[in-house]
Amino acid sequence: MIKLLPLNLLQINAVPSFGQKKSDTGIQENSLERSPKTDTFEAVKPAKLKKVSAKDMTTPAQLLKDYNLVVKENILGDEINCLLQPKINSKGEKIFTDKQIKIITLAAKKISFYKATAKKLEKDGNEAIEPAIKQLKKIFGGEKEFGKYIKAREKNGQPAAKDSVSIYNKLIKEYKSEYIDGDVLNSFAKEFKKKSYKQLDKNEKELIKMSLQDAELKLDARGYKALEESLKTSTKDYQKAVNWIRDLIGIRLVLPDDADMKKVEEYLTKAILRNDIKITKVSNYHSNHIYPYISQNTAKLWQQSSPGLQLVNNSEVRKKNGYTTTQMNIEFEIKDKKGKIKTVLGELQIRSEKLNYLGQIEHLIYDILAKKDIGKGIPELQDYYDSTGIVDAVNEVFSDPVKENAYLEYEKTTYARIRNGETKNKHVYKEADDYPLLADFGLGQYEVLSFESLDLIDKKANLIKKKYGQKH
Q: What is the model's pLDDT at position 58?
């Protein structure tokens, strides 16, 4: 296993914070943003909020509550949030236009829909997880063979489906990717830079936000219609939400380092030919010169015998940091409590014990970059993370392209060192007696981000969660 470094390596100098400031209303603001001068919805007449009776659909108080919710959940993205910002009159009252009110109301309803959907999916997943585990254990030869290495996602020590908070966050992310980042934001980007929104860099996106607030850019009729239509909810939206959560049931085959992968492939091949498992997608995540866990040739044979199976090209899942796993999307046919057969979507990942652990402890960096609540609502845990300086270190390294590339190379070299040892592949990276050090890549001052330190942080964090988690 990885050699751990002394605990005192966790004490690093403070790194300048990259946090955003908040306004008096508690709404997140970008330091580059400025107060809007005019309404940025095209051809919209301002309408001051008035006191209305209880019979009206939206009261001023409810509208302000919905507005704060929409901004907080960021379902529409920063650019549309700029368009929704109210004006403030001389009395300090917030003034919304008719179109702003309509979008805010629809967006609040969409949020409620996704939250309710997330809770239902979590319930469905928890009902299906035990049968899914049983099915996969049988496919891999039961407890006497590779079935004993099947491990499910857990919560409080028990197998559990993806939780509703994670599901909800994924639904919001997918909604923005499919609808907002498409027709809606393209209407801004093409007017501003004559290219699609996804082709813009970070600086160009910041300039778009500033231009929106200065009313130099407007949401045209086509963009507004696309936005409004995307927020309307129908029965089709529920099925689309279900299909977005491909890992409702998360299961891993965590193998010993010297496992016979040919035997693993044989188990899966037999199951596919007997229709004991329905695999819809195979992704071999790996980097150059690192062997995947399932050979591409075997996956191609599965594709030929299983119509509809999607085999992702290596180039699309090649990771700069060397992350290595074979990921399969599976449709589980499960009987519910009433005996009715229903399909539940799950994910099976194959990796070794060492790479599985590295992936687990490295996920903290991903969570920080995704601005997730790493403290899990536990003050003691947040205080501990703050004391290590890891958040500031992550933000500083990944805000500098040179440092980011150096860190990714450090990760890739570590993954390759382990995976090549498992496959007895010695021809790519020179084998060293020890694992690579961050100092080898010019990042010695960020020792808190080394795998050794991440290992220590993970162990301490788990102790804190166990001790204080139940109190919150």
A: 56
Helix (H, G, I), strand (E, B) or coil at 319: coil
Q: Tell me what pLDDT residue 323 has.
A: 83
Where is 401: in which H helix or E strand? helix 401-423
Low-confidence stretches of the chain (pLDDT < 50) are 1-57, 426-432
- Tokens representing residue 128 in the block: 């299906």
Structure tokens belonging to residue 197: 């929104």
Name the nearest CA neighbour of 322 among 292, 345, 283, 295.
292
pLDDT in the model for residue 30: 34
CA distance 354 to 416: 12
- Using CA atoms, how far apart are residues 159 and 163, in angstroms rounded to an integer? 11
CA distances from 307 to 278, 304, 311, 350, 439 (A): 10, 7, 11, 22, 49
Sign (positive or negative) of CA dihedral 257, 258, 262, 268: negative
For the chain, the farthest-separated pair of C-alpha atoms sits apart, in whole angstroms, at 77
Q: In the prediction, which pLDDT does 36 show?
A: 36
Residue 414: count other Cβ atoms within 10 Å of its Cβ.
23
Measured CA distances, 20 to 29, 176, 404 (Å) = 7, 22, 21
Domain residue ranges in the chain:
358-471
Q: Are strands 87-88 and 94-95 parallel, antiparallel or unpaired?
A: antiparallel
Report the candidate in 260, 255, 261, 320 with the shortest Cα–Cα distance to residue 285.
Answer: 320
What DSSP letter does each residue of 90-126 carry, written as one string? TTS-EE-BHHHHHHHHHHHHHHHHHHHHHHHHHHHHH
DSSP lists the bridge partners of residue 279 as 330
**CB contact burial 284-319 (16+ within 10 A = b; e otherwise):** bbbbeebbbbbeeebbeebbeebeebebeeeeebeb
Helix (H, G, I), strand (E, B) or coil at 264: helix
For the stretch 446-461, pLDDT in tens is: 999 999 999 999 999 9
Shortest CA distance to 403 belongs to which of 454, 365, 358? 365
Residue 115's Cβ-side half-sphere holds a number of Cα atoms within 13 Å equal to 9
Task: Retrieve residue 421's tokens.
Answer: 């040892």
Cα–Cα distance between 24 and 9 in angstroms, integer?
A: 38
How far apart, in whole angstroms, are the C-alpha atoms of residue 36 and residue 34? 6
Q: What is the pLDDT, as a whole number, of residue 314?
A: 65
Interatomic CA distance for residues 212 and 32, integer angstroms: 12
Phi, psi of 189 (to 5 degrees): -60, -45
